[in-house]
Amino acid sequence: MNSRLLTFILIVLDWLSALVAWSLFYYLRKANIENVEFTVNNTFYMGIALFPIAWLLLYLLQGTYQDARRLHRLKILGITFSATLMGVIGIFFLFLLDDEINRYEQYYYSVLLLFGVHFTITFVPRFVLVSYIVKQIHNRKSGFKTLIVGGSDKAVDIFEEINGLPIGTGHQFVGFINLNGVDKLLSDDLPYLGHIDQVESVLREHEIEEVIIALESVEHDRLKKIISRLEGGDVRIKILPDMYDILSGIVEMNNIFGALLIEVKSEVMPVWQRTFKRLFDIVSSVISLVLLSPLFVVLAFLVKASSPGPILFKQDRIGKNGSVFKIIKFRTMFVGSEKNGPQLSSSSDPRITAIGRFMRKFRLDEFLQFYNVLIGDMSLVGPRPERQFYIDQIVEREPQFLELTKVRPGITSWGQVKYGYAENVDQMLDRMKYDLLYLKNRTLSLDFKIMLYTVLIIFKGAGK
């Protein structure tokens, strides 16, 4: 059963559970706590219409639906308990606290009743579904397409260790790639898929979900280079620990039957923050596009009057995981400004029109990118997207720049706030340091801080 189907089933079960839980709670509260006759009224109908949707949004923020196949029984117990606790507290303060009661103790009984009913009715079907998923994995009937990087004795050892475990751990080995032209000891057990230089195409072609790097963690330089090529998308990366890693507590065991592996977690932003960030992007973009529509009409007229040519400017940029998308702006330059090839602009660039210079000063030309955010090409905050022409030049000097393509690019960024627009590759490299720092410290609070400084720059007219 694929991940999308499992997620759909889980969502349907959660919706039905929330509906049944609220209905049962409403009846028991009236009959057993308030001791009044149960009647179906507008409050009841409003509850069964709105509360299931609210619960689903809470579960979404919690990250419950990120990948249903990776849920296990202990995890589903924990997230169900925490979500129920938060949801019940929210319902109590928002909807139950103003109810007329005979005794103050009825509040406690109502909260405990709602918690018990909702938790039980939600957890039981979840537990059954997750138990089915776990059983499929343990019986090796389901799992995640796994690639081994390396073909030496270490690769053979980890392959034999995982395959020799009493129950399946979810690794369905697709093949291996080697790090040099010699080590192919795994070729008797797994298909040889190529060399490390071909890893990106191997990942795409075979839809790899997990990668095990058969190098010890002490081989820092080699690991760093390999991991930088593997990070991004939904691929999980695992490496072999050494004794120091084990003693220092870096090795995290989620399965007592599993092999000793360290999962490389490059994502520093928690699931709920990533989910909220995307929801905030969508809502903010819709509101901004609606409220700014009169301004867009005025800017469109000014651009058209400033010089011959189209109103909008569209250009290929590199987005998340190297995908290409069309960035959209109001045109600020004369048509044919890059007839001699790609050129970065400067504050005194003669190719910029008079109205274009004004728009750049207040970043007005960028406002249309709310559309790019809405459709998922960009985020409000993230490293600025660049053209492949300049990325190739930057990577020759600093390969770490590719780290910035692992997340959605943004309308504004830490580098944009701290440094501004780059006028040459050297300045791009200077700005990159701030964006890399952002990448390793991403939080919602940092995003809001960057947005606040961006707003100040706009009102001050400090753009260029």
List keywords for this structure.
six-stranded mixed beta sheet, alpha/beta, 464 residues, 52% helix, Rossmann fold
Spell out the helices and strands N to C.
HHHHEHEEHEHEHEHHEEHHEHEHHH
Mean pLDDT: 86
* Overall spatial form: flat
Q: How many separate domains?
A: 3
**N-to-C terminal Cα separation, in Å?**
53 Å
Q: Strand percentage, roughly? A: 5-15%
Structural class: alpha/beta
The low-confidence runs, each spanning 5 or more residues with pLDDT under 50, are 246-251
Q: If helices are DSSP runs of H or I spanning 4 or more residues, what is the number of helices?
A: 16
Read across the widest sheet, the strand sequence of neighbours is 3-2-1-4-5-6
Concise overview:
It contains 16 helices and ten strands. The chain has 464 residues and is an alpha/beta fold. The chain has three domains: 3-138, no CATH class; 144-264, NAD(P)-binding Rossmann-like Domain (Rossmann fold, 3-Layer(aba) Sandwich), CATH 3.40.50; 271-460, no CATH class.
Q: Topology, pairings included?
A:
Elements: H1 3-33, H2 42-62, H3 73-96, H4 105-138, E1 144-149, H5 153-163, E2 171-178, E3 192-195, H6 199-205, E4 210-216, H7 220-230, E5 236-240, H8 243-247, E6 262-264, H9 271-291, H10 293-306, E7 312-318, E8 324-330, H11 354-361, H12 370-374, E9 379-381, H13 388-397, E10 410-412, H14 414-418, H15 425-439, H16 444-460
Parallel strand pairs: 1-2, 1-4, 2-3, 4-5, 9-10
Antiparallel strand pairs: 5-6, 7-8
Helix pairs in contact: 1-2, 1-4, 3-4
